[in-house]
Amino acid sequence: MDRQDKGPSGAFPFVRHHGAVSGVTGSAHEWVVSDKASVLIDCGLFQGRDTGPGGASAGALAIDFDISRLQALVLTHVHIDHVGRVPWLLAAGFQGPIYCSLPSAKLLPIVLEDAFRLGISRQPDQVERFLTVLEQRLVPLPYDHWHTIKCADGSEAEIRLQRAGHILGSAYVSCRYRGDHVTVFSGDLGASHAPILPPPTSPEGADVLVIESTYGDRQHEGRAIRRQRLEAMLVRALADQGTLLIPAFSIGRTQELLYELEEIIHENRQRAMHPFLDWDELPIVLDSPLASRFTQVYRELSPYWEDEARERLADGRRPLAFDQLLTVDGHDAHMRMVHHLAESARPAVVIAASGMCAGGRIVNYLKAMLGDQRHNVLFVGYQAAGTPGRQIQRVGQGGRVRLEGEGVAIRAGVDTISGYSAHADQQDLLDFVSGMGRWPGELRIVHGDESAKRVLAEKMGSLYLRRGLAVDLLTPAG
After folding, report:
1. Each residue of 382-406: pLDDT tens digit?
2. Cβ atoms of residues 410 and 392 within 8 Å
3. Are 168 and 192 contacting, i.e. CB atoms less than 8 angstroms apart?
4. Deepest of 78, 285, 423, 441, by most Cβ within 10 A of its Cβ?
5. Taking CA 290 as the corner, what is the angle to CA 79 and CA 106, rounded to the nearest 5 degrees?
6. In contact, 203 and 440? CB cutoff 8 Å
7. Does the model's pTM come out above 0.85?
């Protein structure tokens, strides 16, 4: 069933969707409490072929919906598909506060400074003015506390952030109106077995749940299995003395990969991977200035890590700063690394953004190495329709892909390990609902391909049927 506005009763509050309804990216959901007051949950960039109901797309970033009643913006986390259009929202005249978690408040200026430079202006004075305005608007909130928003019409709304386990600082948002009606926005939920961060726990209950469905039609491999697959992939990919390229988002996925790679190297220390390479000598190249900055913030905010990760720190290990980790900052150093690894027989692992190969430094590596069968590409995250990453993943070795307007033959090996997604899988999403004391009477399934939304809706319907409960299942139209 498709419906943009109002719940089963047709009364306030209701939800209006401005993104992530006909695809995975561009998250923007408006919680409307009256004719004069609403709260926006996220304001993200569109990627690939994803579009918004108002016509926004990856090439049309101006805000395409009415912002006159917006009282506040709440950010679930700082991935670009959830925050990337914040500069455009401010440019459109939004004057309200920007709420997020304490860790997100440290990460957000880094993300949006980069987005502003790429999408609006590289002029230092304009960048500084934007960051100053952002700093003035940011209101960091602690987890698990209700915060009151005073609306222009005299009413009050309340919001509460709770850990989502997706990336550092991620949260799902409970929105309460008049003391009883609760709408929960999941944002992006983390996988139950992900490293570094504790998994999300379900809210007490909700009347309406807006839930993501990125992996609503599949299950991830377990952590032990994916770690074994990653280790086996390293051994196989480096047997030809080539490079293993891993496209990864700068925040979240990169830090999880570093954590797992440190574990693999630690458990294989003083052993040979191949006659020409010891595990202790395997270079892990992090070629992303943004990822390096985010990784530093992850280290600084280790109190937010889960118990196992903090125990490793206590034992003297450095999960995100181990000896084999090499960081590449400047563009010249980046290009030298690309040429060195493409032309030499020095095995290495390279982690670089963007995660969907739609830009960033990974593109230079791909253009230099996809045509050589010594090298391999490993996808560890979702690839949206219309992105180069999806094309490489789909056609594989022997196919072709266009990178920055140039056709490139794919002779390198292409593999995928799904378990490294920072998103919840189907069972995690079902558990999020079944763990509630009071199940929502309305489910809005967003943030997924049509097949993923459809399959998750079927599973949710069966879940409710087994409990003898009624549910209004919606997959909002794009």
Report:
1. 888 889 999 999 999 999 999 999 9
2. yes
3. no
4. 78
5. 60
6. no
7. yes
